[in-house]
Amino acid sequence: MSTEEKTQKSTRFVYQDDEVLLKPFDWSVLRRMGIYLIPFKNRMIPAILLMLYGAATKLAVPILIGTAIDRVIDPDTGNGNLSFLTIFAGTILGLYVIQLFTNRIRIRITNVIGQQVISNIRNDLFTHIQKLSFRFFDKRPAGSVLVRITNDVNALQDLFTNGVVNILIDVVLLVGIVVVLLTLNFKLGLAIMLTVPLMFMISTSLRKRIRRAWQEVRLRQSRINSHLNESIQGIKVTQAYTQEKENIIFFDEMNTSNRRSWDIASGLNQIFTPILEITGGIGYFILFWYGASLVQNGEITIGLFVTFATFISQFWEPINRLGQMYSQLLIAMASSERIFEFMDERPSVAEKEQPLQLPTIRGDIKFNHIVFEYEQGRPALKDVNLAVSAGQSIALVGHTGSGKSTIINLLCRFYDPVEGSCEIDGHDLRDVSIQSLRSQVGIVLQDTFIFSGSIRDNIRFGKLNATNEEVERAARAVHAHDFISRMAYGYDTQVEERGNVLSMGQRQLISFARALLADPRILILDEATASIDTETEVKIQSALKVLLEGRTSFIIAHRLSTIRHADQIVVMNHGKIMEQGTHQGLLEQKGIYHGLIEAQYRFLQDVV
Amino acid sequence: MDVLLQLRAYYWKERWMLFTSIICLIISTAIGIVYPLLMRYLIDDIIKLKKYDEVLALALIVFGVIIVKAIFQGLHGLSGGRLGNRVAYNLRNALYRKLQYLSFQYYDKAKTGDLMSRLTADMDAVRQFIGFGFAQFLNLFLMVGFGATIMFTIHWQLTLITLVTMPLLVYTAIRFESRIHPQFQMMRQAMSNLTTAVQENITGVRTIKSFAREPFEVDKFTVRSDEYKNNQIGAAYIFSRYFPFMEIFSLLCVVSLLIVGGYLVINGSITIGDLVAFFSLIWFVIGPMWGVGFHINQYTQSKASGERVLEILNHYVHVKDREDAIRLPKDQISGHVQFDHVQFTYPDSPPTIIDFSLNAPSGAVIGILGGTGSGKSTIIQLLLRAYNVKEGTIKLDGHDIRGIQLESLRQAIGLVFQETFLFSSSIRNNISYGMMNASIEEIIRAAKYAQAHDFIMELPLGYDTIVGERGMGLSGGQKQRIAIARALIKNPKILIMDDSTSAVDMDTEHEIQLGLKEIMQGRTTFIIAHRISSLKHADEIIVLDNGKVIQRGNHQQLLEQDGLYRDTYDNQYTDQTRQLGVQS
Question: Looking at this predicted complex, what is its ipTM?
């Protein structure tokens, strides 16, 4: 306890999210990424051909120049031939002009493919995350999920647009140069190639550390983003509690450790190139020393020597670039692993293979011996049995944390019960399709969520094809129409997530209208009117009575004026149902409910 | 360059690293240029004049040159990387600082996703450019300068002819820049739209799932994602139109060098070694020119990003300390609050507060009742000076709050927001959020007053339980009680409860009230509530409707009047009074 106490003090905010993935370099990640390229294989063929042309040009030019020096400019005899020279130059020019067009097409094809692949990965990831259940979101800060869809996917961008093609070009160039050098002069070529294994050894030893370093960077970055996201969301609390300075101090610490991890990662990246260059220097040494002696022996000409020199400078370039690509690949790998980690996440609430399409709900609901826990060992519901007949209104009453909202969460199948089952019209919820269930259940939560956009769009979220009249009718039913039409742009007023354009009560009214517009077969009000004044609430209730004739509804509320008219009042405590009955019936029982009402009466007596 | 100038504050502190990076790059470049000269020496002197005994020495010199060059290259990379990281660090700290102080007015309009995209993606573009792009941009001129100078000393006519296409290249590069810049701005905007969509989706996941609207969200996302993709492709198309031209303009140098240089060698004007050196040197000019497109690309991207980052840094802070603002020590504040004919209007809205006056002497309890959107929360946010009043004045102990240092004003106020927000931290830290040095005893005492202690102790980790963004596993009422404890521990002179027990059940609320009764001694208290039971103790109850005071008085006085207060009372009580009356 005491050590824990200390750590708690030093950690002002805790983001218990990611860990550095300590798996070895995983080629299967690369393979999975490669799968995204398969649909484009037909379009990649022209890109590869065009790329081959570029590589061929690169290989041809030094040979042409070397030949020109030997044959045309002819340093040994001094009788050069100017018209031949023009032919050589013309050939090179021709190659370049063709390259002008091939490059243009190649850049376009590769970018279109690359961006499409990135977009596909991003869409797949997003779509998959949409399928995941509440449990997934419960344990992750929004910022860290956000980062995977934006930054981590973006980190793959360079790899897929230029990377793949560049790797191919460089590999072709490398092989081409090796072949050409060995063909032109086997001995000199081979001598220079001796440095290649050395180079690969060095890069292999470095790459592991680089990868680890980038994973660390991603981890810190993700924490920073989680905190940034949270601090923006909670800014009003921060300012009201004058914690700006303390937060700045905390953030500085976080930011410093982020900078350090960047320093390590980018530092390792930066020494990669010079080390390769020094290794490459050995090649130059061999060229000068051994090459000159070959010229001395007359085994090679000056032109050939120049060709070699040009090729060597071009030889290290692709190796160097491949090295860079490799570190880029490592950065991308760190991100891919994080992307696939999410993609491999299975929804904790999964549909059956062939789920039943729930027909129009009548509204008979049964909870059979339900046991549920959010965290292991912390039961939220203990053996709950509840039967509701179609058309009834049920009020759930109890202390905060007694399990009222959990009943709702299970009814909407946001979670599955640990034991027992939940049935609607005789269908176990685990058998029906989630879409067919939730589209018939309207739920108004206490903490409403308003999307940025117009008020109209926010209400329309309940029924996407609703006409303006329908939107307005729903707004009128919950008495939101008056305040909406008083606003500067009426239903077209733009609202933001946290904006003060709407008061909390107004936001509740809007989400209420949203739920009504969906015309649900089961309506759930989870403290939906807590921030709405009593007068409006009473009006809404009478409107609802007409609108929801014959539909089952659940109400969680603390204001007794809200619940007393319910057909069934369910009193809960510590995850158990304690009492059940009508207002009148429960009063006569003189149990907990009676106590609640009486207490309220007593509070009143205090003053009156 | 304007953007760079404005960002100066964030890299100028690290200028030594910037200089180191640049100097190392210059040295590395300058040393690199020795290589073609060594090549010329090899051909013209060693091979032509058959001085083969010098070969080994020359080869070693070449090797040495490359090592030195690589070392400086590495030093440049290290210092550049560090510079970029430091700039990112400085900038991120500055942004964070700014975000802490931007007013409510800013956040009312800001989108979290958009801010996040500026703080991450845009930030990285700036890091990259200042760390490397800038030095490389400079190096580009150096390489061209060095290369061209040496070429000029060898044979200036050949140099001029060889480099004749350079002006064309520069022209193309400039045109390219002007075309690609708007595209990058659009791309950044598209990224920020995408981020916003995702951010909203994740935050609103409960609402989305309860309506089974995942397909709609996927469509919305796909539209934004496509928009971003198309912008990227658009940029690539512009690149593909200009880049090959830049490439060929530089490659033309090779062709003209071959023709003219070859002619000059045949003529005997230059040696073959000169020509070979030229072929090597020309890459010093061509190489960077080739990269001009890339560098411009990078510069433009980071400029667009820098602008978006600067937008936050330069944003006007609506609420700030006046220069002559006074500091009110907490223990000297008595808590006398006066509103004097206050008017307030949010942008694009009808007036929210109209001619509001109130005198709350020290220790008074003020209750506020009113319909949704009647201006209740606005009044107390004005007292917090979250917004500046448009007309009229608000006074604390006789001082206009605009003349009091914000920090001392806000420290005197304990506000429980209507919307509960808990941070990702332990319950203990959340309660002591406004008072970091609070002891565990103080925390427990505040929690007890807020009726939170019992349920906290029932949690497996008690006060060390980590609650998060979504207050995992806690019900709305539990979160509210933690928020109440958070306000109480501050021991504020002015306590404000903005509908802060709405999710708490009746008898817990009653117990909280009993606790508050004790705590409220000597504090000015504002209570906004819908339940009469929460308001009844107030010395003065104000009934608001559409920003105007329609009734005021104490519980008894208001019950005797016709009006909203008595209607609410009737709705909440008479029924039960009658029923219980029948029974007891």
Answer: 0.86
